[in-house]
Amino acid sequence: MGDTTFVLATQKRNRSDDADGGGEAKKQTLHTSGDPAAALASARHEFGEHGGVNMSIEASATFTVMEPETMRRMFAGELGPDRDFFIYSRHFNPTVLNLSRLMAALEGTEAAYCTASGMSAIASVLLQLCSHGGHVVASRTLYGGTHALLSHFLPRTCDISTSFVEIGDLEMVDEAMVEGKTKVLYLESVSNPTLTVANIPELSRLAHRKGVTVVVDNTFAPMVLSPARLGADVVVHSISKFISGGADIIAGAVCGPASLVNSMMDLQQGALMLLGPTMNAKVAFELSERIPHLGLRMKEHSQRALAFATRLKKLGLKVIYPGLEDHPNHQLLKSMHNKDYGYGGLICIDMETEERANKLMNHLQNYGQFGFMAVSLGYYETLMSCSGSSTSSELNSEEKALAGISPGLVRMSIGYIGTLEQKWNQLEKAITRLQETGHKN
Ligand SMILES: Cc1ncc(COP(=O)(O)O)c(C=O)c1O
User: Fold this and answer.
1) A Gene Ontology biological process annotation (predicted)?
2) C or N: which end of the chain has fewer Cβ atoms within 10 Å?
3) Which residue owns the Cα nearest ligand 1 atom 14?
4) What is the pTM of this model?
């Protein structure tokens, strides 16, 4: 397909308008700086077929044309989704494209495309950027699935190798990147599960000096951080988390330059086009109805996380939260975050051993009714898991130690259901009982 910025088209085509291609495609305003909420409000609003305030769901797998010649022109890349010409929903679907435009606005990138999961977005972008034998420099502290993809799957299947680094050690990162060899610097804006904050502007500067593409997973901090506005090239998301907010959908997105997104949709060479991790249009509709209140939800997640982290610390627990002033990355996060959205909705409590972590979670769920023992994050209820034995279990003991994952680390995604004081009472009650039964930290 051609190199047009199809993802940002704003003009709808008249259905009988095959011949002239429906006119010139317009671009939505690209907000590369400022508040993501302002960018989202400026994105094209799609109305329903009958004038509905919500768009219609385009549930078709395939699309018809008025003239046979149109089909040839669409496959030749002369007519595309930028002018509202659609072929087949693995290629492009209008409803998925609408959500993709919202994701591009959220992250301040030229383009975006949504996928069936966060992992498919991550795997596809890495495969697109690194050919066989490519080299990646990546943070040691990554979601377990991504870590396994880089340490086991990509080396075996594509001979793509990864040097893992301490992302806070800029010298180490710089030394690991080899000009002409390293294709990608991969990191999480706020790391899973240790909540380490990456210095995105400085890391991007170092990478760009050596021609390396910076890919940032922003799953833990949508609205709070805008990696592309801070200098990163590509932002990936597991939409399954905060963006969805309902713990009911698995989805992902790649946000980046139009040239990259277009290359990923290329008929001959595109990882998204040819591997086919396609998002269903009904899922895309659901998600696009949730994005307008993502900012409100993030504010509340962050406000409660800060309140609970502050109070838990006073109770003598070993709390990790980058919103706390004594967190080693607090000033860095303060210098980068979008002020209205706080410091994020995740906190960790280090209980040192798995046994004590399990006791804490058991008390919180079954005595205090404070939250649920479950992996994942971004739900309105609090979710908690012991990372070392769950979402980071793909890392071996040495890798976990290097990543700073203590066996007793409990990751908590703070929900916003109920009132803050009601939830604090439940939390405090459970902790007090735990401490009384001899497990004071
Ligand atoms: C930071 C991060 N990135 C990516 C993923 C993978 O996303 P998904 O489960 O949507 O494939 C996860 C999942 O837990 C995650 O926590």
Assistant:
1) transsulfuration
2) C
3) 376
4) 0.94
| Amino acid identity for residue 41 in this structure | A
Structural domains of the chain, ranges and CATH numbers in brackets = 6-289 (3.40.640.10), 293-436 (3.90.1150.10)
Q: Give, for ligand 1, the residue of 114, 115, 117, 119 to mutate: max count of ligand atoms closer than 8 Å to Cβ.
A: 119
**Of 58, 379, 134, whose CA–CA distance to 244 is shortest?**
379
- How far apart are the CA of 238 and the centre of ligand 1, in A? 5
pLDDT, tens digit, for every residue of 88-120? 999 999 999 999 999 999 999 999 999 999 999
3-class SS string, the chain = CCCCCHHHECCCCCCCCCCCCCCCCCECCCCCCCCHHHHHHHCCCCCCCCCCCCCCCCCCCECCCCCHHHHHHHHCCCCCHHHCCCCECCCCCHHHHHHHHHHHHHHCCCEEEEECCHHHHHHHHHHHHCCCCCEEEEECCCCHHHHHHHHHHHHHHHCCEEEEECCCCHHHHHHHCCCCCEEEEEEECECCCCCCECCHHHHHHHHHHCCCEEEEECCCCCCCCCCCCCCCCEEEEECCCCCCCCCCCCCEEEEECHHHHHHHCCCCCCHHHHHCCECCHHHHHHHHCCHHHHHHHHHHHHHHHHHHHHHHHHCCCCEECCCCCCCCCHHHHHHHCCHHHCCCCEEEEECCCHHHHHHHHHHHHHHCCCCEECCCCCCCCCEEEEHHHCCCCCCCHHHHHHHCCCCCEEEEECCCCCCHHHHHHHHHHHHHHHHHCCCCC
Of 114, 122, 219, the one to substitute when testing ligand 1's pocket (max ligand atoms within 8 A of C-beta) is 219
Q: What's the 70 CA to ligand 1 centre distance in angstroms?
A: 39
